[in-house]
């Protein structure tokens, strides 16, 4: 008996993570009942972000510009490169405030079964960057999962070719945990206690 | 250091109930990182719903049509009218399946301090409807809060003028609770055990 457009709005909210049927209904009615302006603002913000946000040509992080703010910054160390799986990992590490080097964002991890190989993770771009000789330390901050470890191992082999020292975030990250959800203090410890591999 | 359009997207998500800063960030990155199509679908669904959904001329519930499905239905009892505060209350009662009459949606409750009086709640429309003589029973299903009770009392006085019997949902609704969050079984009990006031 509910209107089809309301049902479609509820279904669309259900596509989001952590939003179940009951929450989706609540969000849809919230916008329709008395927060129409918030609804327009959210719809516009989504479309603007999807249209304007692309990928940094240098680090593959999400960026409005061709080269992102971190890559373009002169105040960051140019000889340290931290490898992460996702843009949200960069956000988490930046929030910890402990790291002042550069990033490279894989946008995933090696997963042959899903057709994700070195090319999909931009590893040829990473190889070119390592070949330039500016990077002195590669910090492997992929997730401590089977796929994350395999990806880190692959990149480590690449760094060895170029005689670049490789470290891996170690202390404080719980086994099987996801970087994105780890608090700043723990992340700080993991950075401070990083070990040569 | 985050892009302004990403920040605006996070801010827009934060406007939604139960979505805090951390959830908002997660939702924004979810759409940007790998669910662009879901993002377009959600933005379109919001705009379509805001554009097409208005109010039923008869019951004031949200509706795409001038008269909503419940008001237009010939299979529903025409002599019972259930008064609720919000469209989500109609959804909750419909899901309980116990009620087959008509609704009137106040879109709020009396709240002089916020400038919400009888006109804002559509009570002149309700009065006209009661005056037509078809309604035999008015079921007051406003929330069991101070404002909800005051609103129910006001409407009860109106019904007395027209010699219409008035009942109030009673058993099973916890004090201070909100109708929208009550499970179907409890709502069913409240309907079955309604008492004359
Ligand atoms: Zn960059
Ligand atoms: Zn209606």
UniProtKB/TrEMBL annotation, chains A, B:
Record's keyword terms, sorted: DNA damage, DNA recombination, DNA repair, Metal-binding, Zinc, Zinc-finger
Gene Ontology biological-process entries: DNA recombination; DNA repair
Ranges of residues in domain Toprim: 79-174
Superkingdom of the organism of origin: Bacteria
Protein name in UniProt: Recombination protein RecR
Pfam families per UniProt: RecR_C (PF21175), RecR_HhH (PF21176), RecR_ZnF (PF02132), Toprim_4 (PF13662)
Function: May play a role in DNA repair. It seems to be involved in an RecBC-independent recombinational process of DNA repair. It may act with RecF and RecO.
Gene, per the UniProt record: recR
Zinc finger (C4-type): 56-71
PROSITE patterns noted in UniProt: RECR, TOPRIM
Family from the record: Belongs to the RecR family.
Entry's Gene Ontology molecular function annotations: DNA binding; zinc ion binding
Organism, as annotated: Hydrogenovibrio crunogenus
Family annotation (SUPFAM superfamilies): Recombination protein RecR (SSF111304)
């Amino acid at each position: 008996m509910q209107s089809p457009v309301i049902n479609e709005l509820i279904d669309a909210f259900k596509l989001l993570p952590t939003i179940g049927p009951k929450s989706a209904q609540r969000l849809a009615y919230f916008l329709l009942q008395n927060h129409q302006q918030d609804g327009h603002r959210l719809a516009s913000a989504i479309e603007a972000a999807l249209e304007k946000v692309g990928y940094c040509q240098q680090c593959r992080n999400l960026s409005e510009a061709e080269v992102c703010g971190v890559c373009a910054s002169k105040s960051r160390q140019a000889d340290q490169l931290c490898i992460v799986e996702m843009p949200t990992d960069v956000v988490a590490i930046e929030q910890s405030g402990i790291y002042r080097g550069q990033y490279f964002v894989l946008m995933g991890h090696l997963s042959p079964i899903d057709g994700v190989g070195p090319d999909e993770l931009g590893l040829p771009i990473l190889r070119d960057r390592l070949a330039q000789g500016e990077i002195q330390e590669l910090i492997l901050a992929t997730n401590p999962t089977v796929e994350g470890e395999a990806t880190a191992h692959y990149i480590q082999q690449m760094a060895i070719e170029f005689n670049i020292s490789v470290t891996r975030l170690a202390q404080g990250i719980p086994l099987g945990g996801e970087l994105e959800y780890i608090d700043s203090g723990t992340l700080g410890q993991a950075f401070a206690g990083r070990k040569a591999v």
